[in-house]
Design goal:
The protein is mainly β and about 325 residues long. About 0% of the residues lie in helices and about 40% in strands.
């Protein structure tokens, strides 16, 4: 992704297409912005194709699911061009909606849920006027907010990566120190749940390398997760497995859900599927890159179409 002669003024990693990996947005100085989509580890510039065409001197941006419809939108501030709000159309295109747009000279942009109502608001620092605070009126859709506290990791948990699994979808966020010019957002992670039916599972990868899984969190509330707290379930053992192995699911038989544990001696792409007695696909539970370790995945007894699988599976 080297581009000699292009000057950046801020960058952030965001899951714009909700496929469980980080894409990259770069604010540029004096040239069009860059949006690199992560396609299985290869990065492709898709900004112009998807309609993200901000130009001029972009001083900051915020990527977040502002309208709680299960995709990340984008607000871009600029010093010499109008600020732009891009509405994400399910990852396939971005629409310049005209919301929160102005012709003022933005020096930095940050996002935070300042009124704690479950949606992200926007704060813009100006060089030619009073600062702006755009309050997000939001929707009535559910959300969960996480406050991470490191123990072995730094206390603010900067660098922690959290993957939400809900309703058959994956969405990843991370705690960062900042995304643009002289700006820093809040360290709490807000997960808009939109129309996701649940159950909600959060996998936390701490900067120390520790992994935790947290389930059963009430919606529309803020929850604090302490690194390796006993209420969370570690999903990676301290000792790296020596062989590839899968344990018997537990419980078996089961009524509502069962856990499938497997061991990876090396990192790699893992596909975990449920087949019926005739070898036909019932459910794809997992298809992503995983680190070496011992992992657990839950299955709720339903197929890819959401219907309950036959008891003979």
């Amino acid at each position: 992704m080297q581009e000699p002669g292009v000057r950046s003024w801020g960058a952030s990693w965001n899951d714009i297409d909700h496929d469980g990996d980080f894409d990259l947005y770069v604010s540029c100085l004096g040239s069009p912005c860059r949006l690199f989509r992560n396609d299985a580890g290869s990065f492709v510039e898709v900004g112009n194709t998807l309609g993200v065409d901000a130009s001029g001197s972009q001083t900051g941006h915020v990527a977040f699911d502002f309208d709680n419809d299960n995709d990340e939108d984008l607000y871009v501030g600029a010093f010499d061009e109008p600020n732009i709000y891009y509405d994400n159309l399910t990852g396939s295109a971005f629409y310049n909606s005209g919301k929160a747009a102005d012709n003022l000279q933005a020096r930095s942009v940050t996002g935070a849920d300042y009124d704690s109502d479950g949606d992200e608001d926007i704060h813009v620092v100006l060089s030619n006027g009073n600062n702006l605070l755009y309050s997000n009126n939001g929707t009535a859709r559910p959300w969960i907010r996480l406050r991470l506290t490191g123990v072995s990791s730094n206390r603010m948990a900067i660098g922690a990566r959290v993957t939400l699994k809900s309703g058959g979808q994956r969405y990843v966020q991370q705690i960062t120190g900042g995304t643009g010019y002289i700006s820093q957002g809040e360290q709490r992670l807000l997960f808009p749940l939109g129309t996701l039916a649940g159950p909600d599972t959060f996998d936390v990868r701490w900067p120390s390398g520790a992994f935790q899984r947290v389930t059963g969190l009430a919606r529309n509330q803020t929850h604090t997760i302490l690194e390796m707290d006993q209420t969370a379930v570690p999903v990676v053992d301290a000792v790296r497995p020596q062989v590839l192995a899968m344990a018997q699911n537990h419980p078996n038989p089961f009524q509502s859900s069962t856990l499938i544990r497997f061991a990876l001696p090396t990192a790699g792409r893992v596909t975990l599927t449920i087949l019926d007695v005739q070898g036909r696909l019932v459910r794809t539970i997992l298809d992503e890159e995983l680190a070496a370790g011992v992992w657990e995945e839950a299955w709720d007894g339903r197929g890819n179409d959401g219907t309950a699988a036959a008891s003979s599976v």
